[in-house]
Amino acid sequence: MANHDGEAGAGSLAELGKQVTPVRMMRARLCIEPAIAREAAINASAEAVIRIKLAKDRAEQATSWADYEAQDDLFHRAVAEASDNILLLALFDQLNQVRRAVAWSSVVRQSARPPREHSSFQEHARIAVAIETRDPAAAQQAMRQHIGSVSARLFGEV
Q1: Could you tell me which residues are beta bridge partners of residue 33?
Q2: Would 65 be classed as within a structural domain?
Q3: What value does the mean pLDDT of the chain take?
Q4: Cβ contacts of residue 62 below 8 Å, gap of 6+?
Q5: CA nearest 34: which of 150, 133, 126, 143?
Q6: Is the pLDDT at 23 greater than 80, yes or no?
Q7: Which of 22, 43, 71, 94 has its CB 3.0 to 4.6 Å from that of 59, i.e. a possible disulfide?
């Protein structure tokens, strides 16, 4: 999966995605994204906070699951960008590329779009507030709770 320099290329990340189960993908996200949210709460610029809130709002307004997932992706990337750490952003992008390649066929949607009471909306809001108020512990916990909630909803307890 790595070339002779030890660098994982895009092809190897897609290949890795074919080997990783959705549950293992979520477990990897639980290891990495809460720490990224913590760094975002410490380092986010005012502009980064605005981008996070805009992505959060657009996810809530999504008219289809595909639209929601695209906006959710932008929300999580905005949090990674807000960490102001190019290495954490690169790690997030690699994790996200693998996530896109994972076979999500086990996920069944019960509606055409996220329902108004979709738990991710409040979870995203808690993450955004924690980052905006510069509360690293709350940001880390809110992201951990969010990814845990998504995992539980999709696969049962992870």
Answers
A1: none
A2: yes
A3: 88
A4: 68, 70, 71, 113, 114
A5: 143
A6: yes
A7: 71
